Amino acid sequence: MWVNVAWTLKLVPLRGQRLYFSFPEDDLPAGRISPVEIADFERDTYFYGTFPEDFSWGVSSSAYQIEGGWDADGKGPSIWDNFTHIPGNIKNNDTGDIACDSYNKVEEDIYLLRALGVKNYHFSLSWSRIFPSGRNNLINSHGVDYYNRLIDGLVANNITPMVTLYHWDLPQALQDIGGWENSALIDLFDSFADFCFQTFGDRVKFWITLNEPQVIAWVGYGLGAFPPNINDPGTAPYRVAHILLKAHARVYHTYDDKYRASQGGVITLCPNIEWVEPKTPTDPRDIEAADRHLQFLVGWFTHPIFKNGDYPEVMKWKVGNRSELQNLPSSRLPVFTAEEREYIRGTADVFCFNTYTSKIRAVAWGLRRLLNWIKEEYENPPIYIIENGVGVKTTSDVDDNTRIFYYKTYIDETLKAYNLDNVNLRGYNAWSLMDNFEWLNGYDPRFGLHQVDFDNPNRPRTPKRSAVYYAEIIRNNGIPMPKEDEFLYGEFPKNFWWSVATSAYQVRKQIWIFKLSGHIWDQFSHTPLKISNGHTGDVACDSYHKIEEDVEMLKSLKVSHYRFSISWARVLPDGTTRYINEIGLNYYERLIDALLAANIMPQAVLWVQVTIYHWDLPQALQNIGGWENDTIVQRFKEYAELLFQRLGDKVKFWITLNEPYNVAYFAPYVVAHNLIKAHAEVWHLYNKTYRAKQGGLISITINSDWAEPRNPHNQEDISAARRSLQVQRHLVTPAFEGFMLFSVFYCRLPEFTESEKQRIKGTYDYFGLNHYTTVLTYNMNYPATSVTDRSWLNSGSSWLKVAPFGFRKLLKWIKEEYNNPPIYVTENGISERGASDFNDTLRTHYYRSYINEALKAIVLDGVDLRGYTAWALMDNFEWAEGFDEKFGLYHVNFTDPDLPRHPKASARYYSQIINCNGFPDPAAGPHPCLELEPEGKRHSRNCAFYDFHNLYTTTIFCSILFKGSSGALTLSKRSCKRSYMELSKL
């Protein structure tokens, strides 16, 4: 959905129900803003780092939202008190009469702050609690005492008070004389501020005059959604803003003239800002449109203060032009005199702002771009984020996973801005300390780090998981890299196998004249709407005719092994041995001979790993029930025996079934039973008849994600993670342990007889593992429900997120669960979508990270890992996704009838890992394995190839530049170099 910024602007993003308000007619320049889907590795990579020791961590709240005591001890009514008392104005007719009852819970609130470990607490003063009539002729000592107790308690606990003078709750008595449309409020607000400076300024050193002045002007006086409910979008917001700016400047000068010397504080105002992403970041027109939007939204108040005392030029021109077209005698945007401009300019000591989202969705990277925009627009002032958080509509969210993910990613973007971009960020405050009254939405959206039970008169507070998480960030002063995630330099065992994989249907041309019969994927892919974009595997990569080309790719990679599968239907067209397709079988013989003849290093040949079954069942067998028909066990055994007879003298590594869990997924009970029995029969056949002569290995390969509990402290989530692993491993457990896992989920599984159990047990020579990603599990739907961490990098597959740590944990779990069997990783890789990029930084990062976790598993955990296989050799047919998902180390141009292959940067990188048998420590100096190939053999695109040690960081260096100008910052060479140096430590 497009959002035309000429008409709408989201207000208070993500804080409950969205508010929309219209800029008057066409004041805001047209420019459609849409989320930009860019595969930007650098943008989305998680950054580990810390802030300086004096960085200010805090939480925020506001008076009306938490205090309650709306008429207690002589407090006067505010416009929000009266507004909420009118039925229908607030969702569920909620009011702030009691709210969180913080007026009576000073000690409890301070206890929560101490537990968090915050350095500051930002709150606002209720004008009408101190001056019930809004004027200094009547001072409410009870209100003053409340704030003194709060401030004293904070100071006693080394928590810095950050105080906002005005957060929307104007005394009703002042609204009765016109509110912020009356210039008399300039003096009245200054009188209130003067009293506060005099009364609290000896302890309060950080003052904010106005919170989100755009909201006061637009939503209160333009849209009329907030009190005072004035619906005059054409002129009122501009008049109100004019007065607000003058009022702010007056208060600033009062503090500067009378109190700064003795109190030594700072003073500013706090707008709300949402990042606006250009629809096309490389289009100057879209960049300009996004910047204009920010000038109307933010520059309206910050340009006069932080620049020249006047409104942005684009705002003056646009509003003035529209006013002229309306035949008005003057612009609807008021004009400052020269004296007023000088008086307003520079009336802020620091730059504070609130932010929640980006236009038009919540993406964490928008915060980093916003911080950079502020840096460039206002010459890198000291910056404090005063509000940042996320609301969840629920009655209870103590286990608030969503909020943790939000803070995890948004705070990380502030780390990037500070450490990589040199943004002068001084502090960060989470919104909010506790669940509270969220304006028009009442108590529905919950933003708090602490849950408040609003049904209980005592308003008890309960810390959420996010409170614990935020406290840890504060304690660590950022997000330092966990010890277990540090990169490990070293080598794999000398006999370690390096491999790459394909499968028959995914790469080989499926010409029926040579197969004589189809298989289930032939028919499935020819069924309309089954495969993305109507793709089929009819041609695939045409590996059937490109043995020599494929072998050359393997030689270039320097792999020691190549894993491929044999098409059952190509060898046995009807799935039985009644007719053997010698032409098809001869293809595999020629392929294997070519592989064995491929000398990739002195006295070494390319070894063959063969998968007997990779999902492409002959259609003739499916017509009689496929894997649900018991006779398939014998058919599979006969098929396997033919392969052992004809190919076994050259093939020394067999995989019976690839990912049987996926084969059985849609009909799991009988199918799983028959798959296990078929595997066992083939294993025994090889073991009894062929092993002694052929001397090979044979086993089964399973696919398994690592399942991490969403909440590592919740026993239900821990149990859900274990169940998730059990579901994925249930097809290998009988072979390793001789029994089938039993649970409610499997209650319909057929039972093995005792003799079958004995025959199945031990039918393995190694543990074959395909692994791609990790999930977070929790106990909602049996056996488990899973989500992913939003800080993990995405891929071209919706299910595949980059979480390398899970690979090591899974390998260690297999070691402990199955008594440390020999493990061969038979698939591991990542997909990308869209236009091909030969400089595939994401894939390079994936292999670097995952292979390093494999090294840790061997060196640090004692896992008996003996080989690693990258998926895939080349881009291929990815099942239901067709050719849209690209896993290949080599690019295949499917639009060219010749289907040419070209290496990607990841191919070069993987070959260097193989050449070095791991990761030589750069501290030891240049390693011979990193020597570059002759210039003529090097491939380049955008960036030249470098040795493996700096390839990874170099590609980041090349992609780290923001494009465009103005709203889309271009980093300086110095900043880019700093980014390069920091990211090289990842």
UniProtKB/TrEMBL annotation:
The record's listing under InterPro entries reads: GH (IPR017853), GH_1_N_CS (IPR033132), Glyco_hydro_1 (IPR001360), Glyco_hydro_1_AS (IPR018120)
Signal peptide limits: none
Instruction: Report quaternary structure and partners.
Output: Homodimer.
Q: What class of enzyme is it?
A: hydrolase
As recorded in UniProt, its EC number(s) are 3.2.1.21
Q: Which PROSITE patterns match?
A: GLYCOSYL_HYDROL_F1_1 (PS00572), GLYCOSYL_HYDROL_F1_2 (PS00653)
**What name does UniProt use for this protein?**
beta-glucosidase
Which family would the database say this protein is a member of? Belongs to the glycosyl hydrolase 1 family.
Name the UniProt key words of this record, in alphabetical order: Glycoprotein, Glycosidase, Hydrolase
Is Hydrolase one of the keywords? yes
* Entry keyword annotation includes Hydrolase: yes
Q: Which organism is it from?
A: Melopsittacus undulatus
BP term (GO), one: carbohydrate metabolic process
Tell me where on the tree of life, at the top rank, the source sits.
Answer: Eukaryota
GO terms, molecular function: hydrolase activity, hydrolyzing O-glycosyl compounds
